[in-house]
Amino acid sequence: xxxxxxxxxxxxxxxxxxxxxxxxxxxxxxxxxxxxxxxxxxxxxxxxxxxxxxxxxxxxxxxxxxxxxxxxxxxxxxxxxxxxxxxxxxxxxxxxxxxxxxxxxxxxxxxxxxxxxxxxxxxxxxxxxxxxxxxxxxxxxxxxxxxxxxxxxxxxxxxxxxxxxxxxxxxxxxxxxxxxxxxxxxxxxxxxxxxxxxxxxxxxxxxxxxxxxxxxxxxxxxxxxxxxxxxxxxxxxxxxxxxxxxxxxxxxxxxxxxxxxxx
Length: 263
Fold this sequence. Notes:
Layout: H1 6-34, H2 38-58, H3 90-102, H4 104-120, H5 130-158, H6 172-184, E1 185-187, E2 193-195, H7 197-209, H8 221-252
Antiparallel strand pairs: 1-2
Helix pairs in contact: 1-3, 1-5, 1-7, 3-4, 3-5, 4-5, 5-7, 6-8, 7-8
């Protein structure tokens, strides 16, 4: 069995520490905001509004104004590109980690992949029975949670937003392009897209680190590289789901609303 060096373990511990730090920092910020002087808060709000009005005057008269800021979609957990960008907070980053790791969609995906693995009896060490299914499900869960922890943790250091941003209302071709681009890019605090370096570490790092506890037939360098490739493919597929499912659901259930509960 190929054992990863201690560097990957250190990276995982650092990412988990960063997640805990984000949680505590977010809570402290909330307390400070609650204690803020009402007059000071009113003044800051007025200054922000004046600055926004000044920027709007500089835009073209026929330019479409963005919708009011909404953090995320309650179904896909992703904002849209038409919404005014709000940088992700430490608390929201931790929420993203838990939703992506133990949310209903993630747990259902685990049932699907573990079922396929059991039907194919891959890896053979687990066996084609319920115990083997449980092992495959647990293996997939540990990999997903590790990857999400690393991406959220290192993303906090580099100010990367791990969320997917939909291109709702855009032509189909642009929405497909958005799905592909957001697989390899992430927004920074100013809203601009940059390479998702935390993701580049998280997906390969998780797959090589998991060689420590995988079955011997899957604990090889080639197997880890293959899983890394499929990890990015899965991320792209998940982006496509988040991009198009709300539109499909709206057609199936006309009364449904895409964005109604902040993430």
